[in-house]
Amino acid sequence: MRIVLVLVLLSASGIATGRLADSPFVDRVKAAMSAMMAGMARAPTGDADKDFVAWMVPHHQGAIDMAQAELLYGRNVKLHRIAQEIIVTQQQEISAMRLAVGQPLPKE
Question: Residue ranges per domain, the chain?
Answer without folding.
Answer: 2-100
